[in-house]
Amino acid sequence: MKIYGNEIRAGYIIEYEGRIWSVLKHNIVQPGKGGAFNQIEMRDIKGGTKSNQKFRSDETVERLRVDSKELQYLFHDGDQYTFMDQESFEQVAVNRDMIGEAADFLTDNMIVTIDFIEGQPVGIHLPQTAVGTVVEADAVVKGQTAASSYKPAVLDNGVRVMVPPFVGIGTKIVVNIAERTYVERAKD
User: Is 0.85 surpassed by the pTM of this model?
Assistant: First the structure.
């Protein structure tokens, strides 16, 4: 469906210059002189390259219809990650590039949301947080205050995060996947 440049919003999937783009950010700018425009930051779904474009209100782009499904993570083989539709038991394989660094947090049977355009996967969304176990952590330095100091730690999936001084080896913690930051101790 055709939409005007001033209607583009973050989260939309659009077709522009023969390529499919995911809109990451938008900002409507009203300069002192001239007409307003929509400043868009977008990522090419196939290539992964980012681009910034200005769209005036009289320009049009094609907004693509995206179908989202919840799928269950099964396994990975090299850079191919396999997910299963829980209703039809159909399996979908996606490349690690589409998942990005968040792939480090995939665990067996995790439910993720995959966006499809015409049956092709174009995007994947993991939960906001994941639970990991600390397998390596620096010792607490005497006199270090818990209020502002953090120490490096390594989780069971190999990811490095900064944690408060009271977190030790064997502690299960909740981590924000997108920012790779400590949230809280996991509830048992």
Answer: no
Q: How far apart are CA 169 and CA 161, in angstroms?
A: 13
Cα distances (Å, whole numbers) of residue 45 to 16, 97, 181: 12, 10, 26
CA angle 181, 182, 187 (to 5 degrees): 145
Q: 157-176, pLDDT tens digit by residue?
A: 999 999 988 888 999 999 99
In whole angstroms, give the CA distance from residue 179 to residue 78: 24
Task: Report whether 153 contacts 160 (CB < 8 A).
Answer: yes
CA distance 127 to 142: 36
Q: Backbone phi, then psi, for 100, in 5-degree steps?
A: 80, -155
CATH number listed for the domain at residues 2-63: 2.30.30.30
Six-digit token string for 58: 């009289």
Q: What is the CATH number of domain 129-185?
A: 2.40.50.140
Domains of the chain: which residue ranges? 2-63, 67-125, 129-185
Rounded Cα gap, residues 44 and 119, in angstroms: 18
